[in-house]
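The instructor's notes for this session suggest beginning with a concrete chain rather than abstract definitions. Hand out the sequence below and ask the class to guess, before any prediction is shown, which regions might be ordered.
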Amino acid sequence: MNTRPNQTTIAQRFSLLLCAAIATWSLRVSASEPPSPDWPRFRGENGVGAIPECSVPIPWKDTDVCWQISLPGKGNSSPVVAGERVFLMSADPNSAERYILCYDLKSGNELWRVTSDSEPHTIHTRSSYASSSPCVNEQAVFVSWAKPDNLVLKAFSHDGKELWSRDLGRYISQHGFGASPALFGKTLVLFNSQQAQELPPGVEPGQSRVMAFHCDTGELIWESSRTATRACYGVPTLFKDEAGKDALLFTNTGDGIFALDLATGTQLWGNKVFTKRTVSSPIIVGDLAIGTEGSGGGGNILFGVQLHGKHELVFQLNRAAPYVPTPVAKDNLLFLWSDNGIVTCLKLPEVEVVWSKRIGGNVSTSPLIAGDTLIGIAEDGTLTALAATENFQELGSVKLEDTVRATPLLSRDYILIRTDSKLLCIGQP
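After discussion, reveal the predicted structure:
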């Protein structure tokens, strides 16, 4: 019997081998490619506030500034990026008119803006009418803002066309609105936390709830009623619970550190550790869920609760804990940048204070980690870079010459910083 393959069989085998080789090469290339440069929400992917590497020199020189533009109005909204477009919010400090803004990442040129009329209302002196950061995916950008008679959540295409809008009813807070929406797959989540204590006479308490929407349509998927005490502003982070389900970690005064099922909004667990307002966002370090509380008068405390198991309180730190700034972690090191400029390096799970130094300044931004560099910005515009290691080392500083209350955006090749009046791009997008 002749077992020699014919020419057709040889060609077929060669084709299969070639396809397999291309597939293997593609997988290797994909595995070696850097992560997406997109920064889709407040503090980046899943709110971790850190990227593995960054080529931008910190501190930088004037020649490292790619572009710098003036912004309309003012705001504490942080920028987000998708593809080659930058999105952020701003507002007129007198009329409260809102601006949804889109800029070209490479040039800083304005591509479009959408305006929305509003009316002046009471906000905190350090807040703004645009303190909520957008979130973005490949199709749309999602924004939210409020005045006392209504809270809105809107979706716009990357070209500025309104896709849908939801009026979520009255919003009650003595300090104004500052929560940011976050995307988890197709589920858009907004923590509609409202005030029920220390209200002016005649003002009915607000109703707090976590709300989840389908990002394509704005359809309400679920809502979870929460204990209303004081309006809180943290943005949730995603994790896997013990059963392997996707779960969201939250913090607020009335319910403490708690987790909801992403699919249904059902509460999975909670530990009521707080008595004061929570402004920072929760983060996860190993098997610890971290949250902070505080007040304008001080008394700030950082809490660590078991993420799995019995969800018991593991530790609390009463010294130099942040109130507004969200902590940031690198491996088992947790870095705290307090509101009065004290930076602390905490080793977990040992809960060992490795070092604590006063950098100075009043701080409303959250620290970030770019590679091995810890970055923080004081309200007077002083950016300070420290080594994100167990050994304290100050790497340098930059004076931005403007008020800064918005947390920056990090990428491998560039950094975006929003000041009160400007947007800067350092590096090469």
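Then share the key points. The radius of gyration is 23 Å. The first strand starts at residue 50 and ends at 51.
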